[in-house]
Amino acid sequence: MARELIISLDAMGGDNAPDIVIEGANIARERYPNLHFLIYGNKTEIAPLISKYPLLADCHELRHTEKTISAGDKPGQALRRGRDSSMGLALQSVNDGEACAAVSAGNTGALMAMAKFMLRTMPGIDRPALASLLPTSRGECVALDLGANVECTEKNLVQFAVMGAAFARTVLGLKKPTVGLLNVGVEELKGNDVVKKADRILRETSLPMEFVGFTEGDGLAGGEVDVVVTDGFTGNVALKTTEGTARMISNLLSDALRDSIWSKIGYLFVRSSLKGLKDHLDPNNHNGAVFMGLSGIVVKSHGSASGAGFASAIGVAADMSANDLFGKIAADLKSFEEEQTGVSQEKAS
Amino acid sequence: MARELIISLDAMGGDNAPDIVIEGANIARERYPNLHFLIYGNKTEIAPLISKYPLLADCHELRHTEKTISAGDKPGQALRRGRDSSMGLALQSVNDGEACAAVSAGNTGALMAMAKFMLRTMPGIDRPALASLLPTSRGECVALDLGANVECTEKNLVQFAVMGAAFARTVLGLKKPTVGLLNVGVEELKGNDVVKKADRILRETSLPMEFVGFTEGDGLAGGEVDVVVTDGFTGNVALKTTEGTARMISNLLSDALRDSIWSKIGYLFVRSSLKGLKDHLDPNNHNGAVFMGLSGIVVKSHGSASGAGFASAIGVAADMSANDLFGKIAADLKSFEEEQTGVSQEKAS
Predict the structure, then answer these.
(1) Of the candidates B241, B259, B289, which is a domain's last residue?
(2) Would an 8 Å CB–CB cutoff place A236 in contact with chain B?
(3) Number of domains in chain B
(4) Same domain for B62 and B1?
(5) Which residue in A45, A217, B96, B262 is a FRET match for A276, CA 20 to 30 A apart?
(6) If you count residue pairs, one on A and one on B, with CB atoms under 8 Å apart, how many are there?
């Protein structure tokens, strides 16, 4: 039997907490029978919810706190006053080694600030990045940074590429994922200085990834590469543009399928075929953004995720813990640094 | 009768030139009976195409050149050797005042470089921007910069907002369009320095636009604002991400509608309802990106546009010429400068 994985949950974060957190824990436990949960939040609200799911009875510990971080709290406020909130305590349990990962659907800025402060960055990483799986026409790709750093240097982008490739190997099960840098064109002379410099560095590495150079915005959904690397400003805009476009088309599609008696009849025939498409695009099925580069696994769920969505986020945390994401990143960073030292020694001699 | 509008066409640019250029001219002429074309390119290839469309017989002048700019030519090469190419001559006719606008489906970088060099920027504009209409759930919005400037200052963004608002008033017929700055969040503290500074300047203007502050990536397709302003790097990625996502969903949708006998039957019923959706998303129907801020109207068509797509691009050129886009931009820039001078005098006194 697989070893037990202990995951801490911020039960009070997100639009529909604590309901979807507990529902999500139950769904995740059905999929991963080796999960155990440390659930942080208000006992009076949470205990009755847990009692609805017999499966959760023997695999959780409920730890009471009255304090919560709200959606409006600024990162600084969370840092000063949030240590004993449900979010702060969930992170603390990872820092203490009690849990192997924490999952929260709460305030992103607060989670990022507290996670950075409490868990620190890994050796060899200057700045953590927010990474997630996105749907493509071929399946899924890993994209990062999705909003942690609005400004990045070429060194940041290179570190993101190393972490993203390790993510793809861990969660998508790829041996040598293809990696592309998001840019406004694929030719070497295109783009700003930062992407051009990062491109030159990545071309020379021999890490377990296949660096393909630049990829454009349509390469994301096109599934051109397994890992798309970009700064947090561009990545956040690209992520939300993808979500917005998918939502627009899905709304226009449901309107179109209701606009006449003929289309309503037709819908009865096509409904089951459209379900697969709907599932593939449903953000809940790709839910779970990871703060990469910290000395602990922290997964951020969409604030408006459903129970099934929160279960996906727990799944990401479980896969990363079980497949030793950290070991992979640490080893790759070490090889990368040795390579770079070799390169600079060669240049010096 | 509306006054005659003379538009120059680069008949040799794009993947399917000159065929789609001539086909597009014919479609555009059906819609705008006051159009007259100066058609630049290889006579031997173009004359037989023109003879297929009786409508074009009396409203064109075909001007021969053997020289073309190819997709692989660098901007510098085009500048040095492209003045007497079909693209260069089409731009020259705008500069000479013979034509009121030029339309090309050729090499974007070359077109931008030559247009900037030959037509110069308008007084009050530091850098031209690439603007286009994008489909939203409410209709269309104007987005700029879509790739002309990979790095921008707050001053550039403010000028883009002024030009974008004039575009929306001219082509979308809005009196006071809403304008948003693309950012990673809507709160004032979000984003990089450039967008924060541009936000502060735009909040104080009293131009014919309603500045709403920041908008996120999903606001684009969501139709939150009439004009979305961003730097050319982010804008290009957002544009291509939108196109890529739409293409992915459209491919998955056609697969879904063919995957069983039931869905094939259903498709017969929903087909006509889906046509409206398909038309709304078809890039050919939103074709025609404008180089804003030059002392002349230059419209860039997608390289792979169909004849109908090229006709849309000619339509954008015609609307801008007929509705005096330049007069509007120039007047707005003047008011804006007077406002700014007033502000700095107030601060100084």
Answers:
(1) B289
(2) yes
(3) 2
(4) yes
(5) A217
(6) 201
Facing residue for B277 by CB, picked from A243, A247, A256: A256
Domain that holds residue B238: 126-289
Q: What is the DSSP string of A63-118?
A: EE------TT--HHHHHHH-TTSHHHHHHHHHHTTS-SEEEE-S-HHHHHHHHHHH
Q: Which residues of B touch A218 (CB under 8 A)?
A: 240-241, 243-244, 247
Q: Is the pTM value of this prediction over 0.95?
A: no
Shortest CA gap B235–chain A (Å): 9
Asked if A262 reaches chain B (Cβ–Cβ under 8 Å), the answer is yes
Q: Name the residue facing A233 among B184, B236, B265 (closest C-beta).
A: B184
Same domain, B80 and B221: no
Residues A167 and A131 in one domain: yes
Greatest pairwise CA separation for chain B in angstroms: 78
Residue range B252-296, pLDDT digits in tens: 888 888 878 887 887 787 888 788 878 878 878 888 899 999 999
The nearest CA of chain A is from the CA of B110 a distance in Å of 13
- Residue A238 and residue B236: Cβ atoms within 8 Å? no
Instruction: State whether A40 and A172 are in the same domain.
Output: no
Q: Residue for token digits 């320095």?
A: B193
pLDDT digits (tens, 9 = 90+) for B58-100: 999 999 999 999 988 989 999 999 999 999 999 999 999 999 9
Residues of B in contact with A135 (CB under 8 A): 248
Residue A134 sits in the same domain as residue A278 = yes
- The answer on A217 and A257 residing in a single domain is yes
The interface predicted TM-score of the complex, written ipTM, equals 0.86
